[in-house]
C-alpha cells in the first residue's frame, strides 16, 4: 500500500509566530507524525501549498485537483485547513479510481494537546476500506464530502441537516 499525502496547509501545520499569538502555516507535519507513529506503509508527502484555508482561491483548488489527478497512487490523503475543507473537497469530485480523504486539525500538530494524530489515523484507516470517492475524516468520523459541514461553535464536523 502506498499513500500520496498532499499538504495544503491549514491549522495542522501552523506554528506559533510571535508574542501577539499570531500563527503562520509552517512545514508539513504529516511526515514527522507518521515517523513518530512508526507506520509500516509506504507514503510520499507532496507539499502543494502552505496556506490558511480562508485564503485559498479557486485557482488553488484547481491546482490541488490537478495534482491529485496526476498522482500515480490511488490512495490520496489531503491535509487541509478546516474552514474551507468542504469547498476544496467539492472541487475533487469525479476523479475516477481515486480514494481521496481530507483531514486536518482544530489545534496545530506541534501542540501537545492536538487532534492531529487522531484525525490522521482515522484518515489512513478510511483510505484502506472506502470505495473511490471524496471523503472527510474528522473528529473520529468519516463522511462523504458532500454530506458534511463544519460546526464552528462546537469545533467539529457533523452531517448536514
TrEMBL record:
| Residue sites binding substrate per the record | 53, 82-83
Q: Report the residue ranges that make up the L-asparaginase N-terminal domain in this protein.
A: 2-155
What Pfam families does the annotation carry?
A: Asparaginase
Which residues constitute the catalytic centre?
Answer: 11 (o-isoaspartyl threonine intermediate)
Q: Which GO terms describe its molecular function?
A: asparaginase activity
Q: What is this protein called?
A: Asparaginase
Native organism is Oleiharenicola lentus
Amino acid at each position: 500500500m502506498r499513500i500520496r499525502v498532499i499538504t495544503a496547509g491549514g491549522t495542522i501545520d501552523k506554528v506559533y509566530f510571535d508574542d501577539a499569538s499570531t500563527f503562520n502555516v509552517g512545514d508539513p507535519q504529516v511526515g514527522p507524525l507518521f515517523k513518530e507513529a512508526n507506520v509500516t506503509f509506504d507514503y510520499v508527502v507532496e507539499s502543494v501549498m502552505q496556506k490558511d484555508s480562508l485564503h485559498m482561491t479557486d485557482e488553488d483548488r484547481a491546482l490541488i485537483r490537478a495534482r491529485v489527478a496526476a498522482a500515480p497512487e490511488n490512495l490520496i490523503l489531503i491535509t487541509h485547513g478546516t474552514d474551507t475543507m468542504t469547498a476544496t473537497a467539492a472541487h475533487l469530485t469525479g476523479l475516477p479510481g481515486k480514494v481521496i480523504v481530507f483531514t486536518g486539525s482544530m489545534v496545530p500538530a506541534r501542540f501537545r494537546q492536538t487532534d492531529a494524530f487522531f484525525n490522521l489515523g482515522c484518515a489512513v484507516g478510511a483510505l484502506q476500506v472506502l470505495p473511490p470517492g471524496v471523503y472527510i475524516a474528522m473528529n473520529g468520523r468519516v463522511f462523504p464530502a458532500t454530506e458534511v459541514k463544519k460546526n464552528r461553535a462546537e469545533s467539529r464536523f457533523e452531517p448536514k441537516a
